[in-house]
Amino acid sequence: MDLHLHVYQLKTLIKIVKGVLEAALKSKTYETVYNRLAVEEATAAVRGGAGLQGASLRDSDQED
Q1: What is the mean pLDDT of residues 40-57?
Q2: Number of domains observed in the structure of the chain
Q3: If both were cysteines, with which of 6, 17, 49, 63 could 44 make a disulfide (CB 3.0 to 4.6 Å apart)?
Q4: HEC assignment per residue over the chain
Q5: How far apart are CA 25 and CA 42, in angstroms?
Q6: How far is it, in rounded angstroms, from Cα 17 to Cα 10?
Q7: What is the overall mean pLDDT for the chain?
Q8: What pLDDT score does 64 carry?
Q9: Does 2 reside within a domain?
Q10: How far apart are CA 64 and CA 52, in angstroms?
């Protein structure tokens, strides 16, 4: 947790998380990864995350 993800890494991981099958959503590992990405996304936004360019976990919750 001491190291932050680069914006490019964050965008890529958000896209991957959006494609996870629903059966995997109930695992502890997925929950841990999702929570970490949420923290990283918030950190990137505070730092001026213009580099995210629309990639958002919040958007993935609203899709489908």
Answers
A1: 72
A2: 1
A3: 49
A4: CCCCCCHHHHHHHHHHHHCCCHHHHHCHHHHHHHHHHHHHHHHHHHCCCHHHCCCCHHHHHHCC
A5: 21
A6: 10
A7: 76
A8: 39
A9: no
A10: 21
pTM more than 0.90: no
Take residue 60 and report the two structure tokens written for it.
Answer: 């993935």
- Rounded to whole angstroms, the Cα distance separating 40 from 34 reads 10
Quick one: tokens of 4?
A: 């932050």
Q: In terms of residue numbers, what domain contains 31?
A: 7-62
Residue 1 is assigned to a structural domain of this protein:
no
Place of tokens 């999702």: 34
Q: Which two tokens stand for residue 43?
A: 């950190």
**Residue 56 φ/ψ region, left for φ over 0, alpha for ψ in the -120 to 50 degree band, beta for the rest:** beta
| Residue 22 domain flag | yes
* Residue 45 in this model has a pLDDT that exceeds 70: yes
